[in-house]
Design brief:
alpha/beta, Aminopeptidase, Alpha-Beta Plaits, 3 domains, six-stranded mixed beta sheet, four-stranded antiparallel beta sheet, about 15% strand
């Protein structure tokens, strides 16, 4: 071994990345794929061109207020279910524009709702929802860019409201804005759904900031798991043979999860931390706890992986003689996102109108995957969750660098572009009967609506 490498290996202050050249290879392949990729094309006309053009003008007029809103949220980050100031700012801006928006709805104190003025009372007319998120991350603020999501959703809704003011017959259906808190780790949209937020909708749309413009990317389903092992304490020197070691059980389970990863599907993930493991080395540990995230690409594989993880933990308890408590889903699970291709294509057309070269799904590596509670929405109604570029491609979500990007000039441009694209997509959906039928048919062909709350309780939901 060269001396320099040996010194580095022995230097506890230096941690070498495991695969320093990996992203160079990924980037080179991605660049080749991007050169061949083309934005999705829609076979439908959508709304009239002059209405879409007027939407673009309205968005530019709204842009200063939307950018100010995003900056205000960025400067005052609030975490899950504590977004009182944030939701008040959103509701206040909508109220200033004559919109009857209100918070504390659907059983969630920091959720909000508004319906487009002039919406027909006829429940048979199509209804689309535009969603805004606004919760931040502990410690690093808006490192997932939810301030950009918030402003874009509000911008799209206000643009449609002003279009209807100017042309009362321009929007033939109904539009709802939903303020959705607590996406980060708490599945806020599922709590809202159980309170009725997504009933009576025909589609739901939102965006998420990212390092790329892309219509769809893999969003993994996610569950949380707390595993508590209970043993028997004993003096570790005088009578260790009288103890039942909960730390042993936790350690075996941790190692078992590590071995399980070899047989997991390529993009599946299990993250584990030991939150309890004893207080004194001289006492056989009576209680130990593991906390886990379990993720998979499909609802059924997430259920399968959940069972395999649980089997590992129960096996560890059996091996050590411990008792074990298995507590799934401290907050509701998130399903993977099921994106509607027909809606994607209309969103892509709008982004092309803004001069953006948006990528289709499948171009970015599947390994670059996270989770979102919008998945639960997408299994109730047709939906899209496209990504809008605000940062360099090398910048990851949930980093200080992405938090900076969420307040950058690129983010300001993204807010205008996303506001237009969301508004145009909603208008297309409400204006074009053939498009709406294709959206609904695609949704039904993919399995239709799923009973999300009971999915993981059923042994075979099919």
């Amino acid at each position: 071994m060269p001396d320099s490498v040996q010194r580095m290996a022995c230097d506890s202050t230096h941690i070498r990345p495991p695969y320093p050249g990996y992203f160079d290879h990924v980037g080179a392949q991605l660049e080749k794929d991007r050169q061949r990729a083309r934005p999705p094309e829609s076979e439908f006309d959508g709304a009239r061109a002059e209405l879409r053009a007027e939407l673009a003008t309205i968005v530019e007029e709204l842009a200063p207020q939307l950018i100010a809103l995003a900056k205000d949220l960025h400067d005052h980050p609030e975490t899950a279910f504590d977004e009182h100031r944030s939701v008040a700012a959103l509701v206040s801006l909508l109220n200033e524009h004559g919109i009857d928006a209100k918070a504390d709805v659907f059983g969630v104190e920091t959720a909000a709702v508004a319906d487009l003025p002039g919406d027909a009372p006829d429940a048979s007319s199509r209804r689309v929802a535009i969603l805004s998120e606004y919760d931040a991350l502990p410690g690093i603020g808006h490192a997932c860019g939810h301030n950009v999501i918030a402003a874009s959703g509000v911008g799209a809704f206000l643009a449609l409201a002003q279009l209807r003011q100017r042309h009362p017959e321009a929007i033939p259906g109904r539009v709802r804005w939903l303020g959705t808190p607590a996406e980060e780790g708490h599945t806020g949209k599922e709590y809202m759904a159980r309170g009725g937020a997504f009933e009576g909708l025909d589609a739901a749309i939102m965006i998420h900031p990212y390092g790329y413009d892309v219509t769809d990317q893999v969003w993994l389903g996610r569950r949380t798991l707390n595993v508590t092992f209970h043993g028997q304490p004993a003096h570790a020197s005088a009578q260790p043979f009288m103890g039942v070691n909960a730390l042993d059980a936790a350690s075996i389970a941790y190692q078992g999860i590590g071995l399980l990863r070899q047989q997991m599907l390529p993009v599946d993930r299990v993250h584990t931390m030991m939150s309890e493991g004893g207080d004194r080395a001289s006492i056989i540990v009576e209680r130990a706890q593991l906390k886990m995230y379990v993720r998979s690409k499909y609802p059924d594989t997430l259920r399968d992986l959940s069972q395999r993880v649980e089997n590992v933990c129960r096996g560890a308890a059996l091996m050590t003689g411990c008792r074990v408590d298995i507590d799934w889903d401290e907050h509701p699970p998130s399903l993977p996102v099921r994106s509607n291709k027909e809606l994607e294509a209309r969103f892509a057309a709008a982004m092309v109108d803004r001069g953006r070269r948006i990528l289709p799904g499948g171009v970015l590596p599947e390994t670059i995957a996270a989770s979102t509670d919008f998945g639960n929405v997408s299994y109730r109604v047709p939906g899209i969750h496209p990504l809008v570029k605000i940062s360099d491609e090398s910048v990851a979500l949930h980093t200080a660098e992405f938090a900076q990007a969420a307040a950058s000039p690129a983010a300001e441009t993204a807010i205008s572009d996303a506001s237009f694209a969301l508004a145009a997509t909603a208008l297309d959906f409400l204006s074009d009967d053939e498009l709406a039928q294709a959206v609904a048919e695609e949704f039904e062909a993919a399995g239709g609506a799923v009973d999300v709350p009971s999915y993981f309780d059923a042994k075979d939901p099919s």
